[in-house]
Amino acid sequence: DKLKSALTKTKDVLRTDVRDLFKAGVILDDAKLEEFFRGLVTTDMGVVAAQSIVDELKAKFGGRTVEPDDVWGVVKGKLKEILRGEGDCNWDVTDPLSPLNLAEEGPTVILVCGVNGVGKTTSIAKLANYLQKAGKKVVLAAGDTFRAAAVAQLTMWSERLGCEIVTKPAGTDPAAVAFEGCDRGVESGADVIIIDTAGRLQTHQNLMQELGKIHRVIGKRIPGAPHESLLVLDATTGQNGLSQATKFSEAANCTGIVLAKLDGTAKGGVVVAIREKMGIPVKYVGVGEQIDDMELFSPDDFVDALFS
Ligand code: GDP
Q1: Is 18 assigned to a binding site?
Q2: ipTM metric
Q3: Pairing between strand 294-296 and 65-66?
Q4: Contact 248, 113 (CB under 8 A)
Q5: How far is CA 132 from the centre of its chain?
Q6: The SRP54-type proteins GTP-binding domain covers which part of the protein (predicted)?
Q7: DSSP code, position 29
């Protein structure tokens, strides 16, 4: 399936760097554990997670002869435990909308943020597609008014998807677009309003102010909104983007991550580092450029696919 093939490159790293370390009857000594640690780190899962896995292996099997199945059982179990977090991702894997916090009454507002080029526009289109397939009426708001190309691209997607979009001239205050998007959504009886936001790199202070204003304006128009605030990250940058992502996440009060471009990277382990460093769940992963190339993130399916 798509997730498995998206993880091909990450699996290749694991296969060459790590898997061969554990042949049947191998003695799990410190040198082997050190090599294993380095292999895990190559997938960008972060040293904390890698160390905790190695520590557990050492405690269970250190200095003893091991069977590969036992080792992989421990590794998979530990990764699943980390990724499950505090149980905030116990959603129904058969329902692609289940990670979303949908409003009980009236339209749900989903704010989407992320740095330019990470795959934000494409992820919004994929999300809108999921929602429409589930019979929801969607309105998009093109809040990235700093980039004409972003507005044009989102407009193109709205035409392909057949959903309404609210746009304003370049340079308009993004909060004004967000407000009008909410207005349109309420008037037209939409189920979900998805608001794009500016993805330019800017100072933390400006970002906080801009996103703070958008939050206030949306909340005024639709009490309780935004119900969901998703941060889109690019898996190909691995852990490099994480400190910046954490700032974004704090500014926007993010409730979940969409990890785009998982298919193009050997750094798929970054999912683990995100979970540990940011403390919010990955809700969706992008596995290609097409409209239906996005999957709900399930810790168990992810770990099983990684070691399949
Ligand atoms: P934005 O600037 O953040 O809005 O990024 P875009 O949505 O325009 O995406 C940037 C590029 O990444 C485009 O060429 C997309 O087709 C591509 N892209 C987005 N998501 C994915 C994904 O999950 N996998 C792959 N392979 N490419 C993606």
Answers
A1: no
A2: 0.99
A3: unpaired
A4: yes
A5: 20
A6: 281-294
A7: -
